[in-house]
Amino acid sequence: MSVIYILLSISIIIAIGFFIAFIMAVKSGQYDDSYTPSVRMLFEDEIVKKSPKKSKITTKNK
Amino acid sequence: MNSTQCYHCGDNCDKSTIVFDEKSFCCNGCKTVYEIFSENDLTCYYDFQSSPGAIPKEIQGKYDFLDQQNIIDKLLEFNDDSTQIVTLYIPHIHCSSCIWILENLHKLNSEISSSQVNFGKKTVRVTYNGNTYSLKETVLLLSSIGYEPYISLDDFKIGEQHINRSIIYKLGIAGFAFGNIMFLSFPEYFQVDGFWIEKYKPLFRWLMFTFSLPVVFYAAQDYFMSAYKGLRSKLLNIDVPIALGIAVLFIRSSIEIIFDFGSGFFDSLTGLVFFLLIGKFFQQKTYAFLSFERDYKSYFPIAVTKITSEGSETPIQVYDIKKGDRLLIRNEELIPVDGILISGNASIDYSFVTGESEHLSKQSGDKLYAGGKQTSGVIEMEALKSVEQSYLTQLWSNDVFNTNKEEAFTTLTNAISKNFTIAVLTIAFVSTIFWLFYDASKAMNVFTAVLIIACPCAIALSAPFTFGNLLRIFGKLKFYIKNANVIEQLASINTIIFDKTGTITSNKKSTAIYEGESLSTSEEILLKNTLRGSNHPLSRTLYDLLDEHNIIILNHFEEHIGKGIEASHNTNTIKIGSASFVGQTQDTPVLNTAVHIKTNDSYKGKFTFYNSYRKGISKLFNHLKEDYDLVILSGDNEGERDNLKKLLPAKTKLIFNQKPDDKLEYIKYHQSEGAKVLMIGDGLNDAGALAQSNVGIALSENVNVFSPACDAILDASKFNRLYAYIKASKSAIKIIKWSFVLSFIYNILGLYFAVTGQLSPVIAAILMPLSSISIVLFTTIFTNILGRQLE
């Protein structure tokens, strides 16, 4: 049953790892704006092909 | 009747329709923006939302002040050799198309490397190459596509606002510790005897102790500090029993594990802190795009145009204006300082500043006051005072802007907590003394048990969750409240004071009543067509109010600014304008704006303009009159007295010609007589009154644009629901009182266990979360029911 020392230590280390990730995520400012990313991810990407002439041809990815 | 809608901005294309690329536009501006987008392959803008655009405004010369380096330095967020970053507030951001186009600015101009929108705050953060592109060009680009930024004196705030995320960190730590401690405490709950538990018990207990340390010393520190402050000022606020409970829990649990009396109450301790912090977090609802702290600085521009002694025009910061400076004020620009009009046709709109609803025409030599908006062309003026000394801005030096309203108000929670603390301490001492005689070993146990279980957390959670939920519900109904205290104050008011101009009157439509001989059809056609050619606001209003007629070409048309218009068609002539212009003498001085009509040299009559009042106002006042004293305080003249008497209940007091200071003093006087005042206003002239009153609501047609410092912002479209909102606040107080009753039941149950010495950690660990969760559920369900009734 002394294996419980090892088990406890590993689980606590992992838990603290997650906690540090949480602190870092909040600090980076990700959660300051929680609304705009939800809209941004719904925009479609566009394929832009630059032709040798000045005009740009853009096709939309439907 | 042509009622196509502009493809870009959605307005009606009645007056003139421009067709381009098979789409209709209401004006050249909209068409130009469409052209810009289609040339750069950005027509995707129109796919996310229909008619998302705005008509780009005329900004000739308006942003010249952005050439000045010292202004640029103050506005930029980041500035180094090649990169410059600026965050601009753009009121027009309202939909996903806006986000899309603003994040694709780099397609419009390759000097812009990236841009990011914060939708909640309605800002865009643009990064561009500082060497080849300038701040002014960025602003001009944004304006040209209809997203003009709003730059005011407020943006000059020195120092960046540091975002306070500490509540999230504290909540994270408390939750993390709570979860882990709960798991660590299971072995002792479920397996009471046995060899291995005896061996490993200390390990689990000391781990629990370690996890609880950051909770007690970091996450709960606000409660300790607030309790200390409260005790210092002899106030028993709700944080005192909370801090006491946490301290006793920690000390008793530590002693128990050191001396092996028991396993301690660490799980209840961290659970308590966790739930309390959730309550605090939930109560904090901020509207990032609104500010409740605005003063005149967010209304005034940063710079105006100064005419130097050589006659050239340079931009000058508003703060640098000195007495004697000559300033050039363009159409739709604000007068920044008190001064004298030198030249030009001045037609000043003071409605925001003094509440007068009609524009004032000023002659050369007349005094002009800061805050007025020039509405007819360009004028030159000479400054008499600086910005801080102007009549209007002096208002902000009044003490009322420095005192904090909230400190004077005892919330319901704090009122209850005083009695609660005293009751708990009494029970603790009495039961301890009882047990000292009966069975001394249990005495200490009972004393600490009472202090632990008498959970103020239910009391501390009722108000935050009720008000927090109600804040959100109100926000969805376009009633944006600053914080939970305001709702409590709103429920206790007994007098309601309204401003007139802009608050109960709407700026959008006016009504005009015609008195005089009726006009023949040909005269009406002539009238309508003459008005069509004039840009004067009265002409435009009257044009919209008249019936439709055919368009005819006038032979002769002449507009005399400040006086009137004259025109002729075939054999008919018409003169429209002020009484003196049409040659009519005024016997009695008229307070309301009137436009006189003279056709073919014979006087016909006049159109008198009255304020148009918001819809539903009679009904609103009739509801309110039963419970509240109603007053109208107006900065305008008495012209509307009869109209108001007809519209409003008889006991409503109507007081006119109130300057901003008068409004403030009126409220102060009535407060000293015991009135609890709710003030509803909209302009700078109401700023003092809004600050002085117990609750100040700013009414706004467009919440994105400036509104003075207040406790709540109400969208003008919801003005007639005011009575329902006040009633809802009162119901919220009732819900809180019932949840107090619920928490008392839990407390009595817990006290039974504590007083009889039977309080074990398991019971505490069950009771505390149970009471907290049930209170939260109770208040949330009932406030949601309340919210549904409101809609």
Q: Your description of this structure?
A:
The complex is a heterodimer of chains A (62) and B (791). In chain A, 48% of the residues lie in helices and 16% in strands. By secondary structure, chain A is of the alpha+beta class. Chain A has one domain (3-60). Chain A has a two-stranded antiparallel sheet. In chain A, a hairpin with a 5-residue loop joins strand 1 (46-50) and strand 2. The longest helix of chain A is centred in the first third of the chain and has 25 residues, at 3-27. Chain A starts with a helix and ends with a strand. Residues 51-62 of chain A have low confidence and may be disordered. Chain B has 5 domains: 1-55, no CATH class; 64-151, 2-Layer Sandwich (Alpha-Beta Plaits); 166-286 and 414-466 and 731-790, no CATH class; 296-400, Calcium-transporting ATPase, cytoplasmic transduction domain A, CATH 2.70.150.10; 507-612, Calcium-transporting ATPase, cytoplasmic domain N (3-Layer(aba) Sandwich). Chain B has a 7-stranded mixed sheet, with helices on both faces. A 6-stranded antiparallel sheet of chain B has the order 8-7-9-15-10-13, with no helix packed on it. The two termini of chain B are 36 Å apart. The A-B interface holds A 1, 4-5, 8, 12, 15, 19, 22-23, 26-27, 29, 31-36, 39-40, 42-44, 46, 56, 58, 60 and B 41, 44, 96, 99-100, 103, 117-121, 163, 165, 168-169, 172-173, 176, 180, 196, 199-200, 203, 207.
